[in-house]
Write a structure and sequence with these properties.
By secondary structure, the protein is of the alpha/beta class. It has 19 helices and 15 strands.
C-alpha cells in the first residue's frame, strides 16, 4: 500500500526509532487509498530534493518532542501546515514557550490538496473560526490590557497597525505616538476581530472601513471608545479614539481659557441667536471646546440638536445625530431637517462645504444659536474661509458673534522639570506631561461687522480684533515659553 515517497518516510521514521502516531496512521492510510498522497506539494516546495522532504517529514510527524535551542522542551503542536512559521509563532506567543509544529491528522487526510477549491474551503473555515479566536482568553486579556493601559496613560488614540512582522500597537499621548506592544502575524486578525466584537461590527467584512463604539471600564474609570477599521495591503488597521464617557467633565472653567476669553465666550453664548465658530487644525481641541459650550447651554428649557461625524460624546438632554452619507444623511441634509425640529441650539460638527455653510448662517438668521467648527490657522482667517465657501459677507456680518481659534502644546513635566529622565513616572522620560490650550477670541462688534460686510481683507480684520483686545496665538505661545510651561520646540509651528 505504501509506495514511493511514503515508504521512504516510514523507513526514515523506523531508522530513528520513531513511528507514526495512531491518528496519523489512520488518516494517512485513508489518503493513500483514495490516491491522495500528502507530500507532492512539499516535494515541489523543496525543489525536488527528495532527501530533504523525507528528513523534514520524518521530523515533523515522528511524534517525538524536540529540544529547543536553550535546552528546554519544545511543545509539539499539530498544525495544518507546520512548515508555515506564522501559526508556529502564534502558538508560541499564546503559550509563552517554544513550540514545534507537526502535521495534524486533518492535514494528512486532505492529501495536501492545493488549488482554488482547497483555498476556498480553507478561507471559509478560517472565517468561521475568527469569532472563536476573538473570544480566546489570551486575545481577550491582551486587548483588555492595551485598552486599560491607554486609559491609564491618558492616551487620545490607540493604533493597531499591521505589518510584515505582525500587529504594532501605538498610543498617542499628549499628541505624540509611542510604541507599546506587538502581536505575531498569526494573531493580528484575532485581535482586530476582538475589537470588532466589542464594537458590534461585522466580523466577515474585511474589504470596507467600519466604525463603531465601545464602552470600556478600567480601574473605576469609564471611557467611551470610538473604533475605526481600515483595510490595508498588510491586513486591517484599527484606530480607537479614547473619549470621556460622560460630558460632565467638560466645563468651560476647566479648559484653561484666559479670563477675558472665557468671559467673552460666555457673553456670546448668552445671546439667543447667532453663529459661534471654533477653529484650528485637527487635534487642537475644537470639539472639546464646543461640547463645553453645549454643556453650559444645556438646560431643561433648551432644545439642543447636534450633527456630527461621528457623535463624539454623549450629552444628556441633547438630540445627537451622526452623519451617514451612505444613507444620504449629510451635514446639510441634517441641518435642513433640524430647522423643522424647533431647536434652540444647533451644533454642526464641521462646516465642510458651501451648502452646509449657507444653512448654518440661515439657521443663525432665523433665531437659532449655531455652534460649528472650521479648519483655519487663526480667528480672522475663519471669516475669509466662510466667504470662500459662498456665504455673502453681509449675511455673515449679520450673524457671526465670535470665533475662537485654538492650539494645544505639550506642557513641561512638573515632576522632572522637563529633563525627561527615564526614571520619571509622570512623563515616562519624554519631559512632557499634559497639554496647554492656547486660545484667541475674535468678538464681532459693530465696527467689525462693518469690515466683514464690506469684504475687508484678513489683515484688516486681524488689526481690528487686536485693537479690541485679542491676543494672538503666537504671543500666547511666547508667554508660555517665557514662563517655562512649554518649550521652543513645541511653539515653533506657531511662530
Amino acid at each position: 500500500m505504501f509506495t514511493g515517497l511514503d515508504q521512504e518516510i516510514r523507513a526514515a521514521l523506523a531508522r530513528g526509532g520513531r513511528h507514526l502516531a495512531p491518528d496519523f496512521e489512520t488518516s494517512w492510510s485513508a489518503a493513500l487509498r483514495d490516491g491522495r498522497s500528502p507530500w507532492p506539494d512539499l516535494l515541489a516546495r523543496a525543489g525536488g530534493d527528495r532527501a530533504a522532504v523525507i528528513d523534514a517529514v520524518a521530523e515533523l510527524v515522528g511524534g517525538k518532542t524536540a529540544a529547543d535551542p536553550e535546552g528546554g522542551e519544545a511543545s509539539a503542536v499539530a498544525l495544518e501546515d507546520p512548515l508555515d512559521p506564522l501559526p508556529v509563532d502564534e502558538t508560541a506567543w499564546r503559550l509563552g514557550r517554544e513550540v514545534r509544529g507537526v502535521f495534524s491528522a486533518r492535514s494528512i487526510a486532505s492529501g495536501g490538496e492545493t488549488g482554488p477549491a482547497a483555498a476556498g474551503a480553507a478561507a471559509v473555515a478560517a472565517e468561521s473560526d475568527l469569532g472563536r479566536q476573538a473570544g480566546e482568553h489570551t486575545v481577550v486579556r491582551f486587548v483588555d490590557r492595551v485598552l486599560a493601559d491607554a486609559v491609564r496613560r491618558r492616551a487620545a488614540d490607540v493604533h493597531f497597525e499591521p505589518g510584515d512582522d505582525g500587529l504594532q500597537v501605538r498610543l498617542r499621548v499628549d499628541g505624540t505616538l509611542r510604541a507599546t506592544d506587538s502581536v505575531p502575524s498569526g494573531l493580528a486578525r484575532a485581535v482586530v476581530a476582538r475589537l470588532k466584537v466589542l464594537a458590534d461590527l461585522d466580523l466577515a467584512e474585511h474589504r470596507r472601513p467600519q466604525d463603531g463604539r465601545i464602552r470600556f471600564r478600567a480601574g473605576g474609570v469609564e471611557a467611551d471608545l470610538r473604533l475605526a477599521t481600515l483595510p490595508t495591503e498588510g491586513g486591517e488597521s484599527a484606530v480607537i479614539r479614547v473619549l470621556a464617557a460622560e460630558s460632565s467633565g467638560l466645563d468651560l472653567a476647566r479648559l484653561g481659557l484666559p479670563g477675558d476669553v472665557e468671559a467673552g465666550l460666555r457673553a456670546c453664548l448668552a445671546r439667543p441667536h447667532g453663529l459661534v465658530i471654533a477653529t484650528g487644525p485637527t487635534g487642537s481641541g475644537k470639539t472639546t471646546t464646543l461640547y463645553a459650550c453645549l454643556r453650559a447651554l444645556n438646560a431643561p428649557d433648551t432644545k439642543v440638536l447636534t450633527v456630527e461625524d461621528p457623535v463624539e460624546c454623549a450629552l444628556d438632554g441633547a438630540i445627537q445625530v451622526p452623519v451617514n452619507p451612505a444613507a444620504g444623511l449629510t451635514f446639510s441634509r441634517a441641518l435642513r431637517a433640524f430647522l423643522r425640529q424647533d431647536p434652540d441650539v444647533i451644533l454642526v460638527g464641521e462646516v465642510r462645504d458651501p451648502e452646509t455653510a449657507r444653512l448654518a448662517v440661515q439657521a443663525a438668521l432665523t433665531g437659532h444659536l449655531v455652534l460649528a467648527t472650521l479648519h483655519t490657522n487663526d480667528a480672522a482667517t475663519a471669516v475669509a474661509r466662510l466667504v470662500d465657501l459662498g456665504v455673502e459677507p453681509f449675511l455673515l456680518a449679520a450673524t457671526l458673534e465670535a470665533v475662537v481659534a485654538q492650539r494645544l502644546v505639550r506642557q513641561v513635566c512638573a515632576e522632572c522639570g522637563g529633563r525627561g529622565t527615564s526614571a520619571c513616572p509622570d512623563c515616562e522620560g519624554t519631559g512632557y506631561r499634559g497639554r496647554l490650550g492656547l486660545f484667541e477670541l475674535l468678538r464681532v462688534d459693530e465696527p467689525m461687522r462693518a469690515l466683514i460686510a464690506t469684504g475687508a481683507p484678513v489683515e484688516a480684520l486681524r488689526s481690528r480684533s487686536q485693537a479690541d483686545g485679542l491676543v494672538p496665538l503666537r504671543v500666547l505661545a511666547r508667554r508660555c515659553l517665557a514662563a517655562g510651561r512649554t518649550t521652543a520646540e513645541e511653539i515653533e509651528p506657531l511662530l
